[in-house]
Amino acid sequence: MKADKQTSFTSYAALLLVATVTGFAQAQESIPQNWNCDSCPLADGWEWDIKGGPAYLADDAFRYGDYTGLDEKGLYLFADVFGRYWGVDASYMVFEGYARGMDSSALFFKAGKQSIYEVRASYQAIPRRFFDTTVTPYAGVGTANLTLPASWVRAPTTQQMTQLDSASVPVSIGWDWDIFGLGVDYKPAQQWKVSADYTRRAREGLQRSSGSFWYNASEFAAPIDYTTDDLELVVSYTADTWQASATYFGSLFSNANSSLTWDNAYTALPGADAGQLALPPDNSSHQLSLAGSILLPARTTLNGQLAFGKMSQNEALLPYTTNSLLTTNPLPLGSANAKVDTLNLNIRATSSPWRRFTLEGELRYNDFNNKTPVNSYDYIVTDTAPAPFSVPNSAYNYQRRVIKLRGEYRTQGSMKLYAGFDNERFERNRQDRKRTTSNRWWFAMRTRLGQIADLNLNVFADDRDGSSYEIVDNPLAPENPLMRKYNMADRQRNGARLHGSVYASPKTDFGWELEFG
Q1: CA dihedral sign of residues 318, 320, 323, 326
Q2: For an engineered disulfide with 137, which of 4, 167, 218, 376 has Cβ 3.0 to 4.6 Å away?
Q3: How far, in Å, CA of 291 to CA of 246, rounded?
Q4: Structure pTM?
Q5: Rounded CA gap, 201 and 184, in Å?
Q6: Strand, helix or coil for residue 64
Q7: Please, where are the H alpha helices in 81-189?
Q8: Does the pLDDT of residue 6 top 60, yes or no?
Q9: How many CB atoms lie within 10 A of CB 220?
């Protein structure tokens, strides 16, 4: 596959003829008995703004076609529409949309009654274009099986593939989004609000992919036929000094193709005539969260969020290899049976008991519990040769706790002083270090020096240590026992940064910085 360099978009000319129709339905005045503003009439009725006309693209311009769909020379129809209705009873209706040829369009609609309910719907067609003169020798592009012509001559290099030029046909790399949305808001009482939003994203097209046999790699077009369905439900309550909400969010992903098979274009070793790779699997995610905030005495605010989540993926596992001459052990499982549970907690308090003093505290806790079964699997090198070892799949768990404390003091002048302490604790499994703890102390000062200068100072000291470092054996990626992963290694750092600015004139300023660490 190849792509030629594109000429500049400025070399293309486009002609757009626009016809506009604008109208506003006859407004009717509805003035309450106690209305006193004679120059402020209440208008109700319809308002319209419709535009349309042809557009001509003088030459092919694939880069201009990205997001617009206007990538080929020719005539296109442009259209824009806007409509709005206001009723004297606070009802309303609004819709607007556009069309840029056949591939790029959108329509948005909403209607309801203010402070009571709203319903909405939308549709968007969004094209993506990445290459212009891409070609491929494979047939079956867009399907899960790519084949070479019967007359194909395999060779060690592309220069020796005598059928490469004659067999190559154009192929467009890109995809089209179709996005549908539905939603509703409803307020059964002044303090209550219920919302529901559904979105479907369908993506279809081709993307670049590749596969290899030993050191011979092939690039080809992999099919995209994805669908993602998202649903969000929210119930909220708002009182004078506190508010709370409960939210459910679910996402389902579906791929019409679970794998891709392609013919080996190079001189093949015995049995390695074709390869197979997995495509993104079907999966699902669900999360339930509770959130709220409350105003307390002494100008104190407390808010927090608690969320529980579940993720799963149970796609059937592909065989180790499509090479019938290689002998492998049976798969330990027929499907992935991948499951992950998550728990996230965030609590934050802010208090200003005195006018010049503010305190903040924050607690975060994250629990990532991977319940995917861990088994040993045979390792086949590019459908050509078995490795002398088996490899376990990775299923990491971790718990993370973060505590942050911060104080701010505002002097009677222009100076502000800050100080804080951050603590982070990680606990992991199946990784080189089971536990790490990080502490950070910091101080900052912000001040203005008269009307023409300011000065900022930051000082910090942090350290990280933890349990003993024990390298997890991985035959695919052996590690030097003296090396340490950057996010798990012991660390001590101290530093300071001094920064200043001088505003010499309304158009001129000078800055300087001194950093130590």
Answers
A1: negative
A2: 167
A3: 7
A4: 0.85
A5: 19
A6: helix
A7: 164-167
A8: no
A9: 21
